[in-house]
Each structure stands twice: as structure tokens, then as C-alpha cells.
Hints:
Strand 12, helix 8 and strand 13 form a beta-alpha-beta unit. 30% of the residues lie in helices and 25% in strands. It folds into 2 domains: 148 residues, Quinone Oxidoreductase, Chain A, domain 1, CATH 3.90.180; 144 residues, NAD(P)-binding Rossmann-like Domain (Rossmann fold, 3-Layer(aba) Sandwich). The chain has 326 residues and is an alpha/beta fold. Helix 3 crosses helix 4 and helix 3 crosses helix 10. The strands form 3 sheets. Strands 3, 4, 5, 6, 7, 14 and 15 form a 7-stranded mixed β-sheet that branches. Strands 10-9-8-11-12-13 form a 6-stranded parallel β-sheet, sandwiched between helices. Strands 1-2 form a two-stranded antiparallel ribbon. It has 11 helices and 15 strands.
Amino acid sequence: MRALQVNELSGPDGITVVDVPEPEPGGNGVVVDVRAAGVSFPDLLQSRGLYQVRPEPPFVPGLELAGVVRSAPQSSGFAPGDRVCGMGSGVLAEVAVARPGQLFPLPPALSWAEGAALVMNYQTAVFCLLHRGGLSAGESVLVLGASGGVGTSGIQVAKAIGAVPVIGLVSTEDKGDVAAEAGADEIVLVTDGWKDRVLELTDGRGVDLVYDPVGGDRFLDGIRSLARFGRLVVVGFAAGSIPEVKVNRLLLRNVSVVGAAWGEAMADDAGLATRIHDELVPMIESGAVKPPIGALVDLDDGVEAFRLLDERRAAGKVVVTVGSGD
């Protein structure tokens, strides 16, 4: 089968398209003919040996997929021909294997590409905003990095549960268009004093929740943008640096910084991903959740998907298309 392969830990330059043997399903693995596979920031980190899971080269990268079940154990709940989306290891290939607890029916409203863009970003958004952030209808939200896959999913989930306003922070007007298309009520550009603009949009009060997948120098102004009793949810560090805060800033306005690691929580709770998927289904059926696709790249050109992320040219989810048809 064709697959992307990381040959050396040098980022996109170390990735090629190769022919490799199809994976074996093992005891309870579900074999999936892949139709689309998402490319995310963890994939890019893994291609440089910087992610917490560090396979030795050569290896096939990829964590998110959508496709058709080829074979499945009877106990899995899946059958040949089922349309599915989910997570696996080494899914940037024509065939992949996934465990039943990390595979879900693909909602009819979503395309293959949208299914491949669903699981990590939207599961993260539900876990971070609802399970950890305790977001309620009527509360206000500021989404940092609002044009990327994590940001747009945060916007849509916040809107789906009735948050208002949902403010997207972006670096360019073009990225602002992406965040607005995802459903953001207001767009704020990263300039000197962007925090003041957020306060202005909330009548000086600040936002109830900051959704922060960026970190870096935006973290501190994110805290400053919080209303009294607000909370900043730490989602990730796309800016590359891990920020620090003097805790007196939390004390002065009764605000909280909340860590939210969906992957760690899922590792300790085998049913978490399925429960979150069940929470997402009505959001999808209502039309509130529909993953924006920033770029579609054929498997033969899959290295370009990694370059788009590496060079920060991606707005919305980057998806590699594999195979064709239903």
C-alpha cells in the first residue's frame, strides 16, 4: 500500500511517499480503507521527534482518519462497509488499523475530509470547554489562534452550546475571515493592545473563558482579558514557548488557569472518547459543528500538508485525501 513515511526526524524534509506492507489488525483491531486523513500539529512534532510519543524512523505518521471498514471483530460493534471516523496510529496510508474504542460512526452530514478533521480537534474542544472549562450558555469566550483547526473547532463548539459573544483572535485579516466563517461573532487582530479591544467588545467586563491553544506571549494578555471569576483553559503551545504566570494575577481577580489534556484523560478513561462523540453528534446534526477544511492534499503530495503546518500557512484543517468513492 502507499503511505507517507518519516525516514528521519527532520520535519517535512524527512518524509516521502513509499510502498509498505499493510498493517496487521492484531487481536481486536478494525481494518479501515482510508479515504481521508487529518494532519495536525502533533504529527508535525512527531516528524521531528518532539512529541511525547516518539517512534523510531522509519514510521508511518498520522492519527486521524475517515474511511470504510474492511474487516472488524464481531465484538467491535462495526461491520464491513461501515463509514467511520476516528483515531489510529500510522493512518496516513491507504489502509489503517484502529481500536474499537477510538472509532466512531461517521455522521451522514459530514464528508470524508470533514470526518478526518473531526476527532482530535472537536473532541479536544468539547473536553476543554465543557468538561474542564465548565462553559455554559450565555457566557463569553475568547479563542486564541482562532483560524487553525483547534481554534475553529473551539469556536463552533462554543457556539453550539450557546456561548455569546465568541471572539476570535487572529494574526491577519484573511485568517479572520476563516474564523468568522467558522462562526465567531467578533474578530480581533493581534496588534499592540488587542486585550483592550476584547475588553471593549465586552463592555469592559472581559470574557468568561479564554480557549488557549497558542501559549507564548498571548497567554498573559489572555489572563488579562478575563472577567472576574473567569478561567483560561490551557489547550496547547502552538507558539512554541511555554509561558509562566505570577499567581498573584490569578488572586487579584479571582481567575483560574485550567489545564486540559484530552489525550491524557482519554488514556485513563477508555470510554471518554465515545462519550464525547455522543455529545458531538447532535451538534453536527444541528449544523453547528462542520469542520472547516483549509487544504486538501492528495496522498502523493502529502509532504505538502506537513509544510503547510510547518510554515504556518494553514487556515482550517489540513487533510490528505486517500482513495476515492464510497
